[in-house]
Write a structure and sequence with these properties.
Layout: E1 6-11, H1 18-31, E2 36-40, H2 47-51, E3 57-58, E4 62-66, E5 69-73, H3 76-82, E6 86-89, H4 105-114, E7 118-124, H5 132-139, H6 149-153, E8 157-161, H7 165-173, H8 180-188, H9 193-221, E9 233-238, H10 244-256, E10 262-269, H11 279-291, E11 295-300, H12 304-314, E12 319-323, H13 329-335, H14 339-346, E13 351-355, H15 374-397, H16 404-422, H17 424-442, H18 454-502, H19 508-518, E14 523-530, E15 538-546, E16 558-563, E17 566-571, H20 577-642, H21 650-682, E18 690-692, H22 698-705, E19 713-715, E20 723-725, H23 727-744, E21 752-758, E22 761-767, H24 800-810, E23 814-819, E24 825-832, H25 846-852
Helix pairs in contact: 10-11, 12-14, 15-16, 15-17, 16-17, 16-18, 17-18, 18-20, 19-20, 20-21, 21-24, 22-23, 23-24
Organism: Kribbella jiaozuonensis
GO molecular function: ATP binding; phosphorelay sensor kinase activity
Membrane topology: Multi-pass membrane protein
Length: about 850
C-alpha cells in the first residue's frame, strides 16, 4: 500500500494560526473534491477557528476513562474504517491518555500514514526534542510534550506559520487567543516580545536547516556540482599547525558577518596515514571550532588542494579559508606552487582567503632525503666520487677502440649502480661528475670542456636526463618498498593489539613492554595526573616497562596523550609522525585497560555489598510472614486468655495455651535457623562431635515433624557403623530434609529415609517421589531464601536446605542432590565414620559438588 503524505504547519508560539491554516487547507481540498475528514482538532474556544470547521466531516473522538475522569482522544480505528483521502489531526506532539493504543499522537499519525491516508497536522517549535531545552532557557517554562525531530523532518511538506511578536501580542490583547482572565498573565510572562522574537528566530533557523537539507538532496539527485550561494558556508582548512587557532577565529568572524552562516573546519589526512599532524593540536582546534558553533570534519586524500575543493563543493561552501604558506622563498623554488596557489587556481566559484599569520614564510628548506638508510647513502656518495675516475682510467686504457656512445653507456651503467646503492642524490652526483669526465677525456676536442659536435652535446644531455630519471625511479621504488614494509609492520602491530583486545588481555605492563619493544625504546610508562593543592601538576606512574628515568611527561622523549589525565611516555628516541599515530592506538588501549581494571575493582568492592543487600532484602521479604504469623497467633491466644469478658472452659484454655505454645515453638525454630545460618556464614557456629549411632537422632527427628512423622518411612539398618557427628546438628539436618520431602511428596507415596556405609563414610538418603529439581537449578536450591516453584512465603522462608548443607559441612560432611530412579529427588547426607578423626575427615562429595558448581 502506498504510504500517505504528511504536511506539517510549524509555528513559533501558540496563537500564530497553525490550526486555522490547517483547517483552511482542509476547506480548500474539500472544495476541490478531495475526501477530507477531521480526525482531531482542538479549537481552544477560539471563535474564528471553530468557524473553519463548518462543512468538514468530524470523526467522533474516543472517550477514555482515567482516574475517575473522562478524556477524549483521536479514534484511530474510526479513521481507518472511514478511510478518507486526507485526515486533519491537530497537536502533533500531544501525549495520549494512558489506555490509548499509542503513547504519542505522532505514533497515531504514523498508523494513518502507513494505511495510505494523507495527514495534515500542526506543531509549535518548542515541542521539538532537539531544542526543547533551549526553549526552556529562553522562556523559563519546561515543555513536557515533545516530538522527535526526525518525525517532523520526515514530513513531505513543512510550512511555517509566521507572525511578528507585535502582531501576536495584539491578537492576544483582542481576545483571539486566550480568555480574558488569562491575557495579562500571558503577555507578562511567556508572550513577552523578547521570548517571541527568540522563538521566531528558532523556528526560522530550524526550517532553514530543513530547507537546506532538501536543497542538498536536490543538487545530488541532479548532479549539480557548482556552488549555489543561497547561504554562506565558510570552510577553514587545518593542518594541525600552531596557526590553526588564528585561521579558525578569522573564519568564524567571516561566517558571523552573514546571518545564519555556517563554519566548517576540515583536516585532510594522507591516505597512507603519514600526515605529520599533531593530534593534540588538532584536538584543541576541534574544541575551538565547536565552541564557536562550527563543525569539524576529516577527509582522506593525497592531493590536498583537490580534497579541500571536493569537500567544499560537496558542502556547497561559498568561501574557503587557508593559511599562508610557512615555506620560505628559497623553499618554494624546490617544491613549486604551494597548496594555496593551486587551490585558488582550481577554486571556481568559491572565494579563497589566504590568511597571514606569524609563522608565514619561516619554514625550512625541504628535506632532500630519500627512503634509504644513512649507511647506503654514504656508500652511494663514496661510489659517486670513486667510480667516475676509475671508470675513466679503465676506458682510457682501451685507447681509440671505444667510441663516445660506448663510453656514455658505460657511465650510464655506473649511474644506475650508484642509484641502486645510494639512491637519487648520489646518482645525480655521479651523473654530473660522469658528464664532466666524459666531456674532458672522451669528447672531442679532448682535454677541454668545449664540445665541437652537436651530437656529442646531445649525447651528454641525454645521458644526464636518463641518469636523473633512472635514479628517481630507483629512489621512488625504494621509498615505496620502505612504506610498504612500514605499513606491513604497522598492520601486524595493530593486528596484535586487536588480538589482545579480543582475547581480553588485561596485563598493562605486558602491553607497555610490547610498545617498548615494537618501537625500540629503552622505557615506557603510563602516567596519571593526580590532583594537588599546589599549582604544579603531579604525575604518578601506573605501570612501566624497561628503564625509565623521567618523572614527568615533558622530561620524556615522547608523550602520547591517552586522555586528559593519562599520558603514555616513552624514553629512547624521538617518534616520527607515523609512529605517533600507531603509538596512539596503544595509548588508547592502555587507558581502556586502566578503566577496565578500576571498574573491576569497583565491581569487586560492590559485590559483597550487593550480596549483603540482596540477602538483607530477601530476609526482610521472606521472614515477614513467618515472624508475623506465629507472633499474631501467640498474641491472640494470650490476649484471649487474659480477657475478662469471656469465660473459657478448661478445654478451651488448654487449646489456647497449646496454640500459643506451638506458635512460640515455630517462632523459636525460625529464630534458631536464622541465628545458625548467620553463625555458619560468619564461621562461629559451635560444633561438638562425638561417636554416635544414627538411631539416636530418629526419635528427635520424628518428634520435630509432629503429626507429619506418620508420613515418613524409616529404613535405617542397625548394622551401620558409628558416625562422628554433633547429634543436635545432625538431627536438624535430617529433620529439615524430611520436612522438605514431605512437602513435595505426592499423596500415597511417603518419603523414605535410609542409610548405608561406603568405605569410611556413612550415607543418609532422604528419598521422595515428588516432581524433582532440574540439574540447572540444583545449585540455586541451596541459596538462602530460595524455594523453587514457590511464589509466596506461607510454607517457610527457604532456609531449610541452605541450613542443612551448612550444618553438614560444619561436621566435615556434605549434602548432595541426586535423581530418584523413577522420578523424584534424593538428598544424600555423607558423614565420616567414628574411625576417622574429625580434623582429618574428608568432605565426601565436595569435589563432585565443586565440579558441578
Amino acid at each position: 500500500m502506498k504510504r500517505g503524505h504528511l504536511r506539517v504547519y510549524l509555528g513559533a508560539a501558540p496563537g500564530v494560526g497553525k490550526t486555522y491554516k490547517m483547517l483552511g487547507e482542509g476547506q480548500r481540498r474539500l472544495a476541490r473534491g478531495t475526501d477530507v475528514v477531521v480526525g482531531f482538532v482542538e479549537t481552544h474556544g477560539r471563535e474564528h477557528t471553530a468557524e473553519m470547521l463548518a462543512g468538514l466531516e468530524v470523526i467522533p473522538r474516543r472517550i477514555i476513562d482515567y482516574r475517575g475522569a473522562s478524556f477524549t482522544e483521536l479514534d484511530i480505528d474510526a479513521v481507518l474504517a472511514r478511510r478518507p483521502e486526507v485526515a486533519l489531526v491537530d497537536e502533533l506532539a500531544h501525549t495520549n491518555v494512558p489506555g490509548s493504543r499509542n503513547e504519542k499522537r505522532w505514533q497515531d499519525i504514523e498508523e494513518l500514514l502507513a494505511a495510505g491516508i494523507d495527514v495534515i497536522s500542526a506543531v509549535n517549535i518548542q515541542h521539538l526534542e532537539s531544542i526543547n531545552d533551549v526553549v526552556e532557557k529562553i522562556t523559563g517554562v519546561p515543555q513536557q510534550e515533545t516530538v522527535p525531530d526526525r518525525v517532523v523532518r520526515a514530513a513531505d511538506q513543512i510550512e511555517l506559520v509566521d507572525m511578528t511578536p507585535e502582531a501576536l501580542r495584539r491578537r492576544m490583547a483582542h481576545g483571539n487567543v486566550y480568555a480574558a482572565d488569562k491575557i495579562d498573565a500571558a503577555l507578562g510572562n511567556y508572550f513577552r516580545v523578547g521570548n517571541l522574537s527568540a522563538l521566531r528566530e528558532l523556528a526560522l533557523l530550524w526550517l532553514a536547516d530543513r530547507v537546506d537539507a532538501g536543497l542538498q538532496q536536490y543538487r545530488q539527485e541532479h548532479d549539480i556540482d557548482s556552488t549555489w550561494e543561497a547561504r554562506e558556508r565558510v570552510v577553514v582548512a587545518l593542518t594541525g599547525g600552531p596557526e590553526g587557532e588564528t585561521l579558525i577565529r578569522r573564519a568564524a568572524r567571516i561566517a558571523a558577518r552573514s546571518s545564519g552562516g555556517d563554519l566548517l573546519a576540515v583536516h585532510v589526512a594522507r591516505s597512507d596515514g603519514l600526515t605529520g599532524a599533531n593530534p593534540s593540536k588538532l584536538a584543541e582546534q576541534r574544541n575551538l571550532v565547536e565552541k564557536l558553533g562550527g563543525t569539524y570534519h576529516q577527509v582522506v586524500g593525497d592531493d590536498i588542494p583537490s580534497a579541500l575543493l571536493t569537500f567544499a563543493k560537496a558542502e556547497n561552501a561559498t568561501q574557503l579559508v587557508l593559511g599562508g604558506s610557512r615555506r620560505s622563498r628559497i623553499g618554494s623554488l624546490f617544491t613549486g606552487p604551494g597548496i594555496g596557489a593551486t587551490t585558488i587556481r582550481d577554486s571556481g566559484d568559491i572565494d579563497v582567503h589566504i590568511v597571514t599569520h606569524s609563522l608565514m614564510g619561516r619554514g625550512r628548506l625541504p628535506r632532500l632525503r630519500g627512503s634509504l638508510s644513512r649507511r647506503r647513502k654514504i656508500q652511494g656518495f663514496v661510489l659517486s666520487i670513486v667510480l667516475p675516475p676509475v671508470l675513466a682510467l679503465v676506458l682510457g686504457l682501451g685507447g681509440d677502440t671505444l667510441n663516445l656512445t660506448s663510453n656514455v653507456l658505460a657511465f650510464l651503467l655506473a649511474v644506475v649502480v650508484v642509484a641502486l646503492v645510494g639512491g637519487m642524490w648520489p646518482a645525480m652526483v655521479t651523473a654530473v661528475g660522469g658528464s664532466l669526465v666524459l666531456n674532458w677525456f672522451f669528447t672531442p676536442p679532448k682535454r677541454t670542456f668545449t664540445i665541437a659536435e652537436l651530437n656529442n652535446a646531445l649525447a651528454l644531455v641525454i645521458f644526464i636526463l636518463v641518469a636523473a630519471m633512472v635514479s628517481s625511479v630507483v629512489d621512488r621504488a625504494a621509498r615505496r618498498t620502505r612504506q610498504a614494509a612500514r605499513a606491513a609492520a604497522e598492520s601486524e602491530t595493530l593486528a596484535t593489539l586487536a588480538g589482545s583486545v579480543l582475547r581480553g588481555e588485561t596485563a598493562l605492563p605486558a602491553l607497555l613492554e610490547r610498545v617498548r619493544e615494537a618501537f625500540g625504546m629503552t622505557g615506557a610508562c603510563l602516567m596519571e595526573r593526580v590532583d594537588d593543592d599546589e599549582l604544579t601538576e603531579v604525575w604518578r606512574p601506573l605501570a612501566s616497562a624497561g628503564s625509565l628515568t623521567c618523572t614527568r611527561p615533558e622530561e620524556a622523549d615522547a608523550e602520547i596523550p591517552a586522555r586528559d589525565d593519562l599520558v603514555l611516555v616513552l624514553q629512547g628516541h624521538q617518534l616520527e609522525a607515523d609512529e605517533r599515530r600507531l603509538v596512539g592506538a596503544f595509548a588508547a588501549h592502555a587507558a581502556a585497560l586502566v578503566d577496565r581494571a578500576r571498574l573491576s575493582e569497583a565491581a569487586a568492592e560492590a559485590k559483597p555489598l550487593a550480596e549483603a543487600d540482596k540477602l538483607r532484602t530477601a530476609l526482610l521479604r521472606a521472614v515477614g510472614h513467618d515472624l508475623r504469623s506465629p507472633l499474631a497467633s501467640a498474641k491472640a491466644s494470650v490476649t484471649s486468655l487474659r480477657s475478662d469478658d469471656v469465660e473459657w472452659s478448661e478445654s478451651e484454655r488448654a487449646e489456647l495455651l497449646e496454640t500459643a505454645d506451638e506458635s512460640l515453638d515455630r517462632l523459636s525454630r525460625l529464630v534458631d535457623n536464622l541465628l545458625d545460618l548467620s553463625r555458619l556464614q560468619a564461621g562461629v557456629l559451635p560444633v561438638f562431635t562425638r561417636p554416635m549411632a544414627l538411631d539416636e537422632i530418629m526419635p528427635g527427628v520424628l518428634a520435630e515433624l509432629g503429626d507429619e512423622a506418620d508420613q515418613v518411612t524409616v529404613d535405617i539398618p542397625h548394622t551401620l557403623p558409628l558416625v562422628e557427628a554433633d547429634p543436635a546438628l545432625l538431627e536438624r539436618v535430617v529433620a529439615n530434609l524430611l520436612a522438605n520431602a514431605i512437602r513435595y511428596s505426592p499423596p500415597g507415596r511417603p518419603p523414605l529415609i535410609t542409610g548405608s556405609a561406603l568405605g569410611e563414610i556413612v550415607e543418609i538418603r532422604v528419598i521422595d517421589r515428588g516432581p524433582g529439581i532440574p540439574r540447572e537449578d540444583r545449585d540455586r536450591m541451596f541459596a538462602p531464601f530460595q524455594r523453587l516453584g514457590d511464589t509466596d512465603n506461607t510454607v517457610g522462608v527457604g532456609l531449610g536446605l541452605a541450613l542443612a548443607r551448612g550444618l553438614a559441612e560444619a561436621m566435615h560432611g556434605a549434602l548432595l542432590p541426586e535423581d530418584t530412579p523413577g522420578g523424584g529427588l534424593t538428598m544424600v547426607v555423607t558423614i565420616p565414620t567414628a574411625s576417622l578423626r574429625p580434623t582429618d575427615a574428608p568432605v565426601p562429595g565436595a569435589r563432585e559438588r565443586s565440579e558441578q558448581e
